[in-house]
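Example (one chain per record):
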Amino acid sequence: RGNFKMGRVIRAQRKGRGSVFTSHTQHRVGAAKLRVLDAAERSHYIKGVVTEIVHDSGRGAPLAKVTFRDPYKYRHQKALFVAAEGLYTGQFVYCGKKANLVVGNVKPLGSMPEGTIICNVEEKAGDRGALARASGDYGIIVSHNVEQGITRIKLPSGSKKVVQSSCRAMIGQVAGGGRTEKPLLKAGRAYHKFRVKRNSWPKVRGVAMNPVEHPHGGGNHQHIGPASTVRRDAPP
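Predicted structure:
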């Protein structure tokens, strides 16, 4: 705690402890990941069909259930992808190095041209998708360095990142965009929005608390007191 004043453990410190702050996973459909990287994707491609588009509780973006034929055994492999905008049921999606550049297909970054709009991007090759997965998000391939096998991508935050060219990504942007454009308008909507996510609402402001509960608490007017900005040389 900053200046070691006596008092209660504040909300931000309690969050790591779990208990009431764990995520609400009761109605979740499952973890949305790309296929496990196998020989079929590494060298050529594999075809799957979108069987259904489903809503996932606590997630702004819809998910797509995709069924592939197992390359080695007589059986199906099912995958749960973050749906790209424009995906529909019955659509064929192709995953692999030799797949075409079509929205919904999954390819390694190295085999896509610069300026391609991508989503559900892998951070490390084979991690099955980590970046640009929220509704309406997308990244852009900025440049390739073929000698070193790396690719620069622009993330939804605007920051640039360098990743291996063997990392895969889905082409297109995530469905469910513009979700934040509509105002929630009433407390009941916010209640239902966070009810399926985790215990993070309503938030009591620090200045509205007592001195024992928060560094901003107390005083005859609601005010912070010490500066709300952080000095340049402070530890993070």
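Caption: The chain is about 10% helix and 25% strand.
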